Amino acid sequence: MIDKMRTIIELRPNAKFQMVNDDVTWLDKEQTEPTESEIKAKMKEIEEAEPMNILRSVRNEMLSSTDWTQSRDVTLSDDAKWKTYRQALRDITKDYKSLDDVKWPEKP
After folding, report:
1. Which of 16, 62, 70, 93 is deepest in the core (most CB within 10 A)?
2. Global pTM exceeds 0.90
3. Does the pLDDT value for residue 2 go beyond 80?
4. Which helix or strand (DSSP H or E) is residue 20 part of?
């Protein structure tokens, strides 16, 4: 469950407010307080985007762990395989929308 504070911050960046439990006290004179329906809609949007964000995060870690293969001073006999693997990782979000159903490419 996405919390209300994160949602308000995404809806109204830099807004001034206080929160105790789920009760919001709006302190900002520049921005209007978001309505409950705005908050609920944004929470739903954030929740729906979360599986893809998690997938991207895991994919980025996997890519990062192979960055060494792309250094100019590294010579690999299977360089083409590493490039293909890394491209498959970058393309993973075209075919999958969450970690639950992803089929990861095989590391060389």
Report:
1. 62
2. no
3. no
4. strand 17-20
